Amino acid sequence: MPFPRTSGVLLHPTSLPNRLGVGDLGSDAYGFIDFLHECHQRIWQVLPLGPTGHGNSPYMSYSSMAGNPLLISLEQLCVDGQLTEDDIAIPDITTTVVDYDAATHAKMPLLAKAADNFQAYASDEQRQRFEQFCRDREFWLDGYALFMALKQAHGGKAWTQWDTAIARREPNAIALWTEKLSTEVFHQKYWQYEFHRQWSMLRRYANERGISILGDMPFYVAHDSADVWEFPDRFCLDPDSGEPALMAGVPPDYFSATGQLWGNPIYDWEHIKALGFKWWIYRFESLLEFVDIIRIDHFRGFQAYWQVPGGETTAMNGYWVEAPGEELFDQLKQELGFLPIIAEDLGVITPDVEALRDRYEFPGMRILQFAFGAESDNPYLPFNYNQNCLVYTGTHDNDTTVGWFENIDDHTKQSVVDYMGQLGPNGIHWDMTRLALSSTANQAIIPLQDLMGLGTSDRMNTPGLGDGNWTWRYHPADITDDLKNNLKHLTQIYGRA
């Protein structure tokens, strides 16, 4: 079922203002929702919310079902009595970008203290709610909590480098380590409980103001994750080393002569299907506890995926393998009913992928930065859209609109001007925002950086760049009255309010 005509803003919670170096679920998150509501926006898009590892990429999480404890608001913990104002009276981390290391160093000891206080002093009602939370999520929570405690005990090493017995999840080793790390396991469970509680309050606040949360589901999961360690039979792993026997990626194309080798383990779809797609169903259910709409990254992998043998150093020697996407979505529809899914269908998409998307009426994606400089049949040009799609000026992987326009060649730049007739006085970012909002696409999403007219140095991610990504954040003063008025005006005149 197509979605109604709406618009919204892309902003990951880590980019929210905060005095402790990283955005969280506290007052600034509520202030951002107030901004969206004031400007008649109906969607807040976030990136994956899971706990991140090296590089801080939300697309390489330690769990596909957990939340990131670093997003927990210390102020909210004070309101609930788990910490005191004196506890959180620590020096501000004064950086203009996210400082993950400093934020972790400042926040995690206080989160541990909050967990210890909860364990010692929680009321009977609080304990009952916590225990019910743990029972309801037993499928993944027990394994995740032990995995994270084990990772800490092993100095952050990947699970394949742990003691062999626990890496292979031998029952005696599980029992021994669960007892040995009982305090750390409790901390992990409490942090998931608190993340879920704080996020649920924030989501309810948004929903009450007519704003839906659009969240991201990466197609693959990280090899060094609780998912792979706890459910190794769902993945194609080497039985001796535990390393991926088959790896994910995409084939060589115009942009890369050797393709992209991501290194994530390929799913053992036959075994997953034999188990009734249980892991996938839990994964969708878990994400729908956090969001109202799911954007599936690399949707084409549900029709066919590029499979590369383990040990390869490029993606060149991979091959396509069909996936049981239709059977999975039929099962999901039977279990969950309506599937509020958006398909990331960028790149070279075959008719089979389009057929899978259209069978379930999932909206596809259109990116305005991809629209210009080619032929008139370019699917990203607005006059080629069908209504059941989601248009962006750019995504988290793109340059900002201002940076993109400054760096494109003269031919492409002229095609932008020709298409629009002329450029307006407020900058290319507002011209592109107007183009997105005026299009026939049912949904339009604008990254906050584009509304602010920021340049390349403020982009969220540069694919292929290992360091320096995911650190952009804004200051409350950056959301000016002019920005609000422009966004509100365009949203109203193009029928998205």
Structure explained in plain terms:
The two termini are 20 Å apart. Helix 1 links the parallel strand 1 (6-10) and strand 2 (43-45). The protein has one domain (6-493): TIM Barrel, CATH 3.20.20.80. Helix 3 crosses helix 8 (182-208) and helix 16 packs parallel to helix 18. With 497 residues, it is of the alpha/beta class. The protein is globular, with a radius of gyration of 23 Å. It contains 18 helices and 12 strands.
CATH class equals Alpha Beta
Helix fraction? 40-55%
Q: Rough shape?
A: globular
Mean pLDDT: 96
CATH topology: TIM Barrel
- Domain module count: 1
Extract low-pLDDT stretches: none
Terminal CA distance: 20 Å
What series of H and E elements makes up the topology?
EHEHHHHHHHEHEEHHEEEHEHEEHHHEHH
Number of strands: 12
What structural category arises from helix and sheet content? alpha/beta
Largest sheet: 8 strands, parallel
Task: Compute the number of helices.
Answer: 18
CATH superfamily: Glycosidases
What's the architecture, going by CATH? Alpha-Beta Barrel
Proportion in β-strands: 5-15%
The rounded Rg comes to 23 Å
Features:
497 residues, TIM Barrel, alpha/beta, 40% helix, 4-stranded antiparallel beta sheet, 8-stranded parallel beta sheet, globular
Q: Can you lay out the helices and strands and say which pair or pack?
A:
Elements: E1 6-10, H1 27-38, E2 43-45, H2 74-79, H3 100-121, H4 124-136, H5 138-153, H6 164-167, H7 171-180, H8 182-208, E3 212-217, H9 226-230, E4 246-250, E5 260-265, H10 269-274, H11 278-288, E6 293-296, E7 304-309, E8 319-322, H12 325-336, E9 341-343, H13 351-359, E10 364-367, E11 389-392, H14 401-407, H15 410-420, H16 428-438, E12 443-447, H17 448-452, H18 481-493
